Automatic annotation (TrEMBL):
Matches recorded under InterPro entries: Clp_N_dom_sf, Clp_R_N
Domain of life: Bacteria
Organism: Nonomuraea fuscirosea
Entry keyword annotation includes Cytoplasm: no
SUPFAM superfamilies: Double Clp-N motif
Gene3D superfamilies (alphabetical): Clp, N-terminal domain
Lineage of origin: Bacteria, Bacillati, Actinomycetota, Actinomycetes, Streptosporangiales
Keyword Repeat: yes
Protein name: ClpA/ClpB-like protein
Amino acid sequence: MPELPDLTALLSIVEERDPTADPLSRLTVAEGVLSDLQGIGDRLLGYLVELARAEGCSWSDIGDHLGISRQAAQQRYGRRWSSLTVADLAQSGAFDRYTARAKQTLERAEAHARRLEQPAVGADHLLLAILDDPETLAVRAIAAQGVDPSALRVELARGLTAGSETTATIPIGPEARRVLTATLAETAELQHNYVGTEHMLLGLLRDRSSTFLRDHGIDLEPTRAAVRAALEAFLRSREP
């Protein structure tokens, strides 16, 4: 069984990061090591909470198991959940029902956030990633409403703000998490057993985190109708 690093191992890390023998300097380095360990711990707890949530456990279930209230569980562990990355959630099984293209969209959204040096993946990063692939049902549903997806993408990309934060891991931000929750709600409403880019697009419109689509005349109900029509056309094309 793997063992946690002991004091000697942690001291070795401090010495490697700060080869000087200055005790005050090493105090600062030790604080950095502690912060790194706390970050790993937060991601570990967030991962396990999300795994439980992906298996259908409610906050009440989690609270009961830990001997605390539902509200306390959500307040205590929701913060850890907020530190999770796309890879963390994928490993937890949260994206098992996502199509390959939908998973690639999530990866591109994270790449956009990283390229723009943003601290987290946002709703507009998800939208930009959706618009990257013109062959998806999501983009076809946009085009069916008389909007040019290519022009939409250019305008969105031009308007995204570049930041100045470079971190090893980029979590999914609160807006994007709400969009993913709304995505599952749209999937359930359409009674589909998979999650595609079209559901992510509907999730963006349902959650209303991003105003960009509505500002260009793309609303939830017409998009739902366009998605249904695109799916019906796709199924007809596969009939013998």
